[in-house]
Specification:
The protein is an alpha/beta fold. The protein has two domains: 140 residues, Aspartate/ornithine carbamoyltransferase (Rossmann fold, 3-Layer(aba) Sandwich); 156 residues, 3-Layer(aba) Sandwich (Rossmann fold), CATH 3.40.50. The chain contains twelve helices and nine strands. The strands form two sheets. The protein has a five-stranded parallel beta sheet. Strands 2-1-3-4 form a four-stranded parallel beta sheet, with helices on both faces. The longest helix has 22 residues. The chain binds phosphoric acid mono(formamide)ester (CP) and norvaline. The site of phosphoric acid mono(formamide)ester has 10 residues, from helix 2.
Length: 309
């Protein structure tokens, strides 16, 4: 397995399968009250330049439950605030901790950090990708549908970091993914090309459209995310206009299969990309998604840290 997870293209199909099995197993053991203290004495550094509730806490609790210690490294209170170069920061921090989870804007920042780190670096979201989110979301799909194979997953909304990671996952796992974004907000050709060239036979499995109704027709899974991501607040008003017709609501959901599950990585803007009632509908599995981030992060931390010893 690769030392780092910066993008889901860092993982092979076997790596994905390993993480699905291990995270589901760890969750079962957790529910039975069986402790897993595999990371006793190990520590995880967390550098979060952007806000986070779920990702930060799920990494922290994952580390604690495995017997290790999470250390939140504030960018404001360290020399990072005084522009110590990423290269030097990485060389130093990776002498202290056993892995680092980073949330930052520029993907090139995390690549630079990883280049000089002695320990595994995990992407906890960049403007380009959110790999661990999609990894745990796939675990949640398997939990609900028993498999990810031949499951029609419809993405409706913005061509953002989470979608980029879905397209990467589709390339490795042969997912049946249909993506509906307004033309102006689709993902870049580079992401499409890089992901799909990984295994050309997959290209037929990812379909791009600008029609949400076409995307959700007979879908097993409907997935959405905010129309304006972190850092795009000034575009929010314009985006609300541009994304008209892309809201996940009762009418759109009625076109999917009866047993459709609705997913959102959260936080949601209630009444924008998803209606109030759908967020409170039992077809929505948002809260399981949030919980499963912790179980998946346990599987990821355990594997990357133990492999790097
Ligand atoms: N889904 C997710 O990454 O949420 P946070 O921004 O709260 O971490
Ligand atoms: N696309 C969102 C995801 C938040 C978890 C953002 O980047 O803000």
């Amino acid at each position: 397995m690769n030392k780092n997870i910066l993008s889901l293209l860092d993982l092979t199909k076997d790596d994905f399968l390993y993480f699905f099995k291990r995270s589901l197993d760890l969750k079962k053991r957790f529910k039975q009250g069986i402790p897993d203290r595999l990371l006793l004495g190990k520590s995880l550094g967390l550098i979060f330049e952007k806000k986070s509730t779920r990702t930060r806490l799920s990494f922290e609790t994952a580390m604690i439950q495995l017997g290790g210690t999470p250390i939140y490294i504030s960018t404001q209170d360290t020399q990072m605030a005084r522009n110590e170069p990423i290269k030097d920061t990485s060389k130093v921090i990776s002498r202290y901790v056993d892995a680092v989870a980073i949330r930052t804007s520029l993907h090139t920042n995390i690549e630079e950090f990883a280049k000089y780190s002695h320990v595994p670096v995990i992407n906890a979201l960049t403007d380009l990708f959110h790999p661990c989110q999609v990894l745990s979301d796939l675990m949640t799909i398997i939990e609900n549908k028993n498999t990810y194979k031949n499951i029609k997953i419809a993405w409706v909304g913005d061509g953002n970091n989470v979608l980029n990671s879905w397209v990467n996952a589709a390339a490795v796992l042969d997912l049946n993914l249909i993506v509906a974004c307004p033309d102006k907000y689709s993902i870049s050709n580079e992401i499409k090309k890089n992901a799909l060239s990984k295994n050309s036979k997959n290209s037929k499995n990812v379909i791009f459209t600008n029609n949400p109704k076409e995307a959700v027709k007979n879908a097993d899974v409907i997935y959405t995310d905010v129309w304006a991501s972190m850092g795009q607040k000034s575009e929010q008003k314009q985006r609300i206009k541009d994304f008209k017709g892309f809201q996940i609501n009762k009418e759109l959901v009625s076109k999917a299969k009866n047993d459709v599950i609705i997913m959102h990585c959260l936080p949601a803007h209630r009444g924008e990309e998803i209606s109030q009632d759908i967020l409170d509908d039992p077809k929505g599995i948002f809260w399981d998604q949030a919980e499963n981030k912790m179980h998946m992060h346990k599987a990821v931390l355990e594997k990357l840290i133990m492999d790097n010893i």
